[in-house]
Amino acid sequence: MTTPTAPPTPPARGRRRAPSRMERAAGRAAALQRPRVLLALLLLLALTCVMLLDGYLRAEVGGDQRVRSGASASDVPDDVLDGGPILSFPGGQATTVSVPDKTIVLTFDDGPDPTWTPQVLEILEKYDVPGTFFLVGSMVSRHPGIVRDLVEQGNEVGVHTFTHVDLSYQSQARVTREIEQTQLALAGAAGITTTLFRAPYSSQTDAIDNYSWPVYESLGEDGYTSVFIDTDSDDWKQPGVSKIVEWATPEDDEGASVLFHDAGGERSQTIEALPKYIEKMKAKGYTFTTVSGVMAEQQPTGGPAAAPDATGSGDSLQAAHHKATGATLYEGKALVAAVAVAEWTVPALSAGLVIVGVAVMGRFAMMLVLARRHHRQRNRRRFSWGPPVTGPVSVIVPAYNEKECIEATLRSLAGSTHPIEIIVVDDGSTDGTAEIAESLGLPGVRVVRQANAGKPAALNNGVRHARYDIVVMMDGDTVFEPDTVRHLVQPFADPSVGAVAGNAKVGNRRTLIGAWQHIEYVMGFNLDRRMYDLLRCMPTIPGAIGAFRREAVLQVGGMSDDTLAEDTDITIALHRAGWRVVYEEHARAWTEAPGSLGQLWSQRYRWSYGTMQALWKHRRSLTDKGPSGRFGRVGMPLVVLFQVVTPVFAPLIDVFTVYSMLFVDFRAALLAWLAVLGVQLVCAAYAFRLDREQYRYLLMMPLQQLAYRQMMYLVLIHSCVTALTGGRLRWQKLKRTGEVGTPAGTTGAG
Prior knowledge:
The protein is 47% helix and 13% strand. It is α/β, with parallel strands linked by helices.
């Protein structure tokens, strides 16, 4: 039987059909969404870059900790091995310079450090003594203010590589990168570059070997002066203040380049020993200068030299420091700015990860406990909603271009063990969906045609045509089991129940994408619904299977097109109107999940953005009083936490796992990730047990966590971007294959 509404006139032969209102709206929406998808991807790329930058600042990928020792020095000239601590290559010839007698070049390695370097600077300023600081580029980029203070105080700086690696093991490209990146960091921090260099793990000239010598030669050709030491305080060993002072003191009034450390570990002994050392050396008649001061006094190529002042400051510093200009200056500032962002972002994300981790674990625990209680409560032999509901109900099937699925949907309904009428609302289909429904000749089926207006309008039209007090709503691509409607309507024996959510199952689970969604439906949706049911704050009745009191639907104004998630919208509205919403696990519906990543993206984008819209629309539920305010007090915070906030940050678990594997501890990070996966597998296995599903699908769960969850993260970011920038979509039609058939005789095992 059909309504007298005339079917749409077919297009004239040979003329191109004009796009429908639905198609035009979908085209406009797609055009608007592309920039937002791009922005979501850019946000993910930016986060990845920040994480990589932060990790690189601490140790380059693979963290090369090798230190060479005992290698031959047969290729190194003897006058270099036995010469002074300052090595340069004027005219391409290796030349060394020694520190004059009664002169100290005070050098510091491994800084700047926010704790120890300022204390060292305070001591140097107090005693009017200059220092030469060999800085690690990654530390410079993280603490630019300290470097500025250091230079402004009149101290000298040199390059100590960017990641503090033994350069004798590195390629020429890596050596160049270590030097250039440190120079960029100095340019960004203090507006200078330097010609001084000291290699890590090579403090004295006798440490030069056949592997490191080419590095010094190459840097010398580029104009760098390599600085070694005569005397090592060995303060990093923390031998005690007196030992540090003793070991740093040269013999027989000789001059010396002396090594201390202002970073790289606990340096309290250094801070205590440094003033004692300065006082001791001054008492012995020593003066303090810088590397540039020594070179200005003793130029290896001859010629007059300006005498350095007692502190080595002033013009003598110009020999080592050069003002950064042009691209070097701007690239340096960009590096420092990027590091500042990383320095703020990564700790913030780390704190967020802890919160998310606690929330995720709490959610799993809550789901397991409440799902078990729900299952035991609803499956007790004596459990009953009240007298059996046996009266006929109306089943509304909104359909838009469902020719592949509509026959299977209607035939499954025709086999229902509960009396029903079937109302197919054809929403302006152009593929003959209405004609197929009529041609089947199934009893109790009515086809209502309307101009294309969207799913909410189609459902409301079906409610208006319904003859009975209980209406079941489903999708046009869904099939019911024979007992589905009977199970679905039994909770209406309780007069406080206004709506019932059914158990939606993925029918096309043979593909990888289908299997992933199957896991998500069983664990993420149905386990959640058990929890929300006991808490009496069910947020969503699935569009694939839900039942409503017609009175309740009309009371809240029917299905609204204010949001993309009309199912969530009306569910929350029912809560606020004082109705109870419950979950019936035995009422199973088999739906066709999206078969491609593009289709899946479109569907989940609509779901996530629609949920945000619905939550915002009903934000005043937070202040609702009485029983009707339960959703605002309990449900709203849980949905925001578990369906918006936590999913946005949940991929941080994976991001930080990769970060930790690359930059921290591979084994520990892998074990932590496997532990989280194990908890999820336990929850999923329990959910599969409750739904009587086959466990073999859980073998795909690790891959789902690696790939599928990241896509869901991007979808949610896309939704958040849309919410911030504004946007609106109409009811989207996904491509269907019709492969989900009537599941007659199934028991839920898939």
